[in-house]
């Protein structure tokens, strides 16, 4: 897939980003490069690679995953207790999207 500057501008608008022409050109080149690397990876033969749910693995004492222990969920009151502004059980925030 060819990434054009028009595509970058469209994605930037959807993400509510303001990019300069220089940034738009750079992003188009960088995104094109990233997709090129992904295309290279798609060429790899993975027929003998078993499917994995995640890249981390159980390695005994050196494992990087914590034990999955069930805990009671936070109550709504506890969740918003330290919020700077809350009401009706919700976090209140300032308007962040203006168009």
Strand order of the largest sheet: 1-2
Uncertain parts: none
Largest sheet, described in full? 2 strands, antiparallel
Query: CATH top level of the domain at 1-46?
Result: Mainly Alpha
The count of β-strands is: 2
Figure out the total of helices: 3
How many angstroms does the end-to-end distance come to? 30 Å
Oligomer: single chain
CATH topology of the domain at 1-46: Histone, subunit A
Helix content: 25-40%
**Mean pLDDT level:** 86
Classification by helices and strands: mainly alpha
What do we call the CATH homologous superfamily of the domain at 1-46?
A: Glu-tRNAGln amidotransferase C subunit, N-terminal domain
Q: What CATH architecture of the domain at 1-46 would you give?
A: Orthogonal Bundle
Backbone CA Rg: 23 Å
Q: What is the percentage of strand-forming residues?
A: under 5%
Order of helices and strands: HHHEE
* Shape category: flat
